[in-house]
Amino acid sequence: MTVAEFRQRVIGFLDASIAEDIACPSFGAIMPPAMFERARAWQQHCFANGFAGIDWPTEYGGQGLSFDHAQAWNDECARRGVTAYMNFQGFILAGGAIRKYGTEEQKQRYLRATLAADILWCQLFSEPNSGSDLVSLGSRAEPTGDGWLVTGQKVWSSTAQLAQYAILLARTNPQEAGHRGISFFLFDMNSPGVDVRPLTQMTGDQEFCEVFLTDAPLAADDLLGPLHGGWTVATSVLADERSAVGAAGIGLRRSLDQLVTPATTEDEVARDRLLDLTATGGALGQLLNRSAGNPLLGPLTKLGLTEIASRMTTFAVDTQGPAGMIDNDATEPFLYAPGMRVAGGTSEIQRNLIGERLLGLPREPKQKR
Ligand SMILES: Cc1cc2nc3c(=O)[nH]c(=O)nc-3n(C[C@H](O)[C@H](O)[C@H](O)COP(=O)(O)OP(=O)(O)OC[C@H]3O[C@@H](n4cnc5c(N)ncnc54)[C@H](O)[C@@H]3O)c2cc1C
Questions:
Q1: What single string gives the DSSP state of each residue in 82-99?
Q2: CA-nearest residue, atom 44 of ligand 1
Q3: Catalytic residue among 210, 241, 266, 348, which?
Q4: What are 315-351's pLDDT values in tens digits?
Q5: What does the domain layout of the chain look like in residue ranges?
Q6: pLDDT tens, 22-66?
Q7: Right CATH number for 121-230 from 3.30.70.20, 1.10.10.10, 2.40.110.10, 3.10.129.10?
Q8: Which of 85, 240, 328, 364 could disulfide-link to 96, CB 3.0 to 4.6 Å?
């Protein structure tokens, strides 16, 4: 099927789903818990109708089509403000890692179930003292002979209170303080020794959690990739996290258009800021069109998108004058935007990556461990 033919099928499916009120409104990379039932029903509907995992292999429940077909799906969803998949952590992070590094048994076990929304994933990477400096993480997996017992504390784990599985980083070689001692696991969140405590953000939502692990069991086949070699898998996941822009350019265009109101065009100072945002956003939109699927440009697009979102949401509140101090439609995006400059690697870290990997500047000095 050509991309054009597929796009027509997508349009028909989405328009019918919107008319029947089945389609789930777009919510970005982190699913608000209140959207869970709606998002799951939508994902099940997509799976049943052949619109889940567009470019995933058919033997694992996908549609076996190309990256361009997947982009057509993302584009048409974005045009209609519909979510393209329910669980970023499952579809992009865990799904990408299992497809690249999983054994046949792991692929069979997890991929179809993820696409069908039978299982939801979270990402247990960050720890209280290891965020940007993730390689210093301290969670330990002690060998038991036929597996491991993992102990440690994770934090900022999005959707952990709803997830059945996690991608988990833990240190399997305590002699190695750096990346060589880390392994990557597919972890059952219903295991004994798991305590998930939701955290309240300044939006009032509880989208992420603290996760305490105390001697939680891991089986031998929960290991993804080589023992002590999990850092390679982790860096691949982090690159996917930065570069999964989907059809962000379309969402960006819509957000920029929504900023054009009498309040932002009639006042000279506001108009000047609006022009600046429109020019920057237009350039970023062009970059997004050119960078789709290019992991090297991930830091650039991640930085650009989260920084402009922060500026746009601040502008939307500022230009309301005193009304901006009252909780209204502009409040939630304004309070949400700063977190996105941190999630998936902070803006400072993206700048470091751009400097070192794209511009070839000298690497920042490493701290002694
Ligand atoms: C909304 C949200 C969702 C998240 N979801 C998840 C999730 O599902 N799973 C998960 O594992 N994690 C998640 N995180 C955690 C996220 O990955 C970390 O917060 C992030 O990597 C930063 O780590 P940190 O919070 O420990 O800050 P730190 O690393 O302590 O950084 C503190 C400050 O120092 C700056 N800084 C640090 N190192 C450098 C440096 N080398 N050069 C310049 N500046 C530096 C940072 O930019 C930042 O401003 C989420 C975070 C947020 C906000």
A1: B-S-S-HIIIIIIHHHHH
A2: 348
A3: 241
A4: 999 998 888 888 888 898 999 999 999 999 999 999 9
A5: 3-86, 121-230, 245-358
A6: 999 998 888 999 999 999 999 999 999 999 999 999 999 999 999
A7: 2.40.110.10
A8: 240
